[in-house]
Amino acid sequence: MAEQFASKRNIRFMLYEVFNAEELTQYEFYQDHSRETFDMIIDTIWKMGVDFLYPLYQELDKNPPQFVDGQAKVHPATRQFMRMCGEGGWINANWSYEDGGQQVPLLITFVNSLIMAAANCGLSGFPALTTGAANLILNFGSQELKDLYLEKMVSGEWQGTMALTEPDAGSSLADIKTTAVDTGEGYYKIKGQKIFISAGDTDATDNTIHLMLAKIEGAPPGVRGISLFVVPKYRYAKDGSLERNDIWCTGIEHKMGFKGSPICTLVMGENNDCHGYLVGEPHMGLSYMFQMMNEARIGVGIAAVGKATAAYYDALEYTKQRLQGRKPSQKDPTTPQVPLIEHADIRRMLLFQRAVCEGGLSLALQLSKYVDLAKVGVEPEKHELLVDFLVPIVKTFPSEYGILSTSAAMQCLGGYGYCQDFPVEQHFRDIRIDPIHEGTSGIQAQDLLGRKATMKNGAAYRLFMEEVKRTIAEAVEIPELKPQAEALAKGLEVMDDVTAYLLNVRKEKGPEEFLADANLYLEMTGLLAIGWQWLLQGIVAYRALQNQPSEGDTKFYRGKLVTMKYFFTYELPKANTLAHVMKTSQGLTANMDISLFDEE
Amino acid sequence: MKIAVCVKQTFDTEAKIVLKDGKISGDGINLIINPYDEVAVEEAIRIKEKQGGEVVVVCAGGDRATEAIRQALAMGADRGVHIKVNDPDVDEYARAVMLAEVLKEQGADLILCGHVAADDGSSQVPTRVAEILGLPHANVVTKLELGDGKAVCTREVDGGMEVMEVALPAVITCQVSLNEPRYPSMKGIMQAKKKPIANVDAVAVESKAKIIELALPAAKQAGKKIEGEPEDTGKQLAEWLLNEVKVEVKQ
Hints:
The complex is a heterodimer.
Chain A: H1 8-18, H2 35-53, H3 57-62, E1 66-68, E2 71-73, H4 76-88, H5 106-140, H6 143-154, E3 158-163, E4 179-182, E5 188-198, E6 207-216, E7 226-232, E8 234-236, E9 242-244, E10 247-252, E11 263-268, E12 275-278, H7 285-321, H8 344-375, H9 380-413, H10 424-431, H11 441-452, H12 455-475, H13 482-509, H14 511-516, H15 518-545, H16 551-571, H17 574-584, H18 588-591
Parallel strand pairs in A: 3-6, 4-6
Antiparallel strand pairs in A: 1-2, 4-5, 5-11, 5-12, 6-7, 7-12, 8-9, 10-11
Helix pairs in contact in A: 2-5, 5-6, 5-7, 5-8, 7-8, 7-9, 7-10, 8-9, 8-15, 8-16, 9-10, 9-11, 9-12, 9-15, 11-15, 12-13, 12-15, 13-15, 13-17, 15-16, 15-17
Chain B: E1 2-7, E2 9-11, E3 19-20, E4 23-24, E5 31-33, H1 35-51, E6 54-61, H2 65-75, E7 79-84, H3 92-106, E8 110-114, H4 125-133, E9 137-147, E10 150-157, E11 160-167, E12 171-174, H5 186-194, E13 197-201, H6 230-245
Parallel strand pairs in B: 1-6, 1-8, 6-7, 7-13, 8-12, 9-12
Antiparallel strand pairs in B: 2-5, 3-4, 9-10, 10-11
Helix pairs in contact in B: 2-5, 3-4
C-alpha cells in the first residue's frame, strides 16, 4: 500500500486557490467559519483517514460481511466508525445550528467525503447514507418524525438507508410494487420486497431507518404514484419503547468489490405488520427522493474520485521505485535498469490518472460551491440550474473514467497490479460499482440529454456554456493558455452543433433515436466540463508561477500545467469523435432488429 | 482541578523533510501537535470530564503555534497560552525556562506533557521544567490515577513497569499507551474559535546549546541481485559479503 492515498496539497489548491472557499464566509450562514475552521475540519478527517480508515482498507475486503442471524455481520470497525462520525458531528455538519449542525459548506464536507472514500470507501458509505436519509426527514418529514428519529441517526447510533430498488424495478422506479395501506392510525402497512439496499440491516448500529419508496393503494400509475415512508427496523410502540417491525433481511449479496458495505435483500409485511410512516405528502415520494439522490449522485462522483486517487498514488509510488527495463536510447544491456516512471508510456498513464482524478475533483467542488451559493440566496435560480445540469456529469465522469484510471494504475504495476499483494486490484473492483449504483450511466445520460439540456427552454445548458466561456475568456488572454482556451471554445461549438442536431432528431424521428446515443452525449459533455476545470486550474497555476513561489510550489504548479496540457492533447479531442459518431449513427442502435442478435 | 498541558508544535510525522541552507524547510509542510503531547491533552480532558476543573494548554513557538493550541482547544481544552518564541532554534534549556515562567503563574495542580517530541526527540523539557519549578516528576507514564493530593503513576521501565506515587502538583510525562486521543469534534472546532488564547512574550533567556549541523539519513542503497545456478549464486553472495559489504568473519 502506498503511503499516500490523496493529496493535501491538491486539496488546499482546490479549496483556497481555485474555489476561494473563504469567500463563502462573507455570507451570514457561514460567517462563523474561516480558513482556520476549514483547515481544522480537513485536518481532523485527514487524521481519521490516516490513523483509522486507511489501515483497514484491505482488511474490510478480506473479511467481507457475513449473513448471520438475519442480518449482515460487518467488520467491528464499522460500528466504531459510525459512532466516531456521530459523536464528531460529521453526519450533520452541514445542518443549521437550529437543527443541530455546524453550518459547514458542502464544499468542505465533500472534501471530507473525498478523503474518507480514498482512505476506505467501504466504511465511508455508512455515515454518508445516514446523512442522506436524515436530510430527507429533516426537509420533508413531520415534526414528530424529526423528533423520533433524527437525534439517533445523526449520533451514529441508527443507520439510515435509501430503499428504492426492487427485483423488478431497478432503474425503472415507476414499476415498483411495494404497497402501503393507510390504517388511519398514523401509520401505513407496508408490503413488498427491496433488493440491493446498502447497509440495509447490519450489526454496526442498533437500528436501521429506511427511507423507502412505496405506492399507496389506489395511487396513480407510474412515478406520480410513489410515496416516501420511514420504515424502521425497530419501531416505537405506544408506550415509547422500541419493538421489532415486520421488516426482515433475508440475505446479502456477494459482490465483486466495495465489500465493506453490504447490500441487503429486505422483505416487508410477511406477517402483515410492517409499519411505515409517510414522509411529507402522498405521491410526492420521488421528488423528495430526488433531493437525496442528487446528494447521493454527487457523493458517488466524489467517492469515485477518491478511489481512483488512491489507486493513482499506489501507481505513482510503485513506478518511482520499481526498476524495469531501459530507455529506448540505452542500447547497452549492462547499464542499470531505470525506474518505471522513466518510461514515457508510464508517464502517460500517470498523467491520465492525475487528469481524471484532479479534474473530477475540481468539477465536483465547482458543483458544491454552486450548491453553497444557492443555499445562501446568491443567484439561487442560476446556481440551482447549474447544479441540475452538472449532477449527471459529476456522477458519471469520475465513475466511468475512474474505472479507466484505476485500470491504468493496475497497468503501471504490471503483473503485480493484477495480484492481491497490492491494493490496486481492490480499487479496480471497488470503483466498478460507481457507474451502476445511484442511477446507472444510462440513466444519467438520459437525464442530461432528455431533461437537463432542454429544461426551462435550455436555460441550464446556456448557463453552463456561459460559465465555461467566462473561463475561456480569461485564459485566452494568457499566451501560454491560449491554445487550450481555443480548443475548449471549439469544443463548445461542437457541443452546440451536436445538441441542435439531436434536438432536430427528436423532432423528426422521435425520442428513441434522440436518446439512443445519450451516453455519448454525456461523455462528450463530461470531457468538455473537465477541460473547463483544467483550464480553470491552469489559470490559477500559471498566475501563481508568476509570483516566484517556493521550489515545492513551483513543481506543484508546473505539474498542474503539464497535466492540463496532457488533458487537452490526449483526452479532449475524443469529444470531437463522440460528436461525429452522434451525427452519423443514424439510429443504428435504436432501429436495429433485435432478432439479429440471435444466432440460430 | 487545574491542569496545564505543555504542547509542542512539530512537523507532521508524514511530512517529507527537506533541508534548505542547513535548516529544515517549512515550505508546504503541515504542522501538528507533537503526537505524545496529544496524549497529554487527552488525559487532561478525561480528568476534567471525570472530576471537573480546567485544562490550560501552553505552547512556546512561532506564530503558527496557535494552530496547535486551537487543535487542543477543539479536543476540549478550555483556554490557551501562546508564548511567543521567535527563534526556532531555541534549546531545551531556554524552552523549559520560558514554559516554567508561565506555568508558575498558572499555578496548576497538575502539569502534563508528552514524554518526548517527535521532531528532536530530546526528552528534556518536562524534566527541566520540573526541576526549575521544584516539583515532583514522573516520566513515561502509561497509567495515571489521581488521589487526594497525589498521583499514582505506572511507568515504563526497562523490561517491566514501575508504580510510583508523587505529591501534587507534579510534572508528569505521558507515553502513547496511556490513552487514545480523540479526534476534535465539529462542535469542538467551532467552539475552539471562541476560546481564549493569551499571547505572552517569552522571558528573555539565552540558549546554552546550539545546533551546528542537520543532516538527513543517507539514501537507501540499491539492493544487489545475484543470478545464476544455486552453487554459483552462493559463491557470488559469499564473495560479495566478504569483499564489498566487508562482513567480518570470526574464525
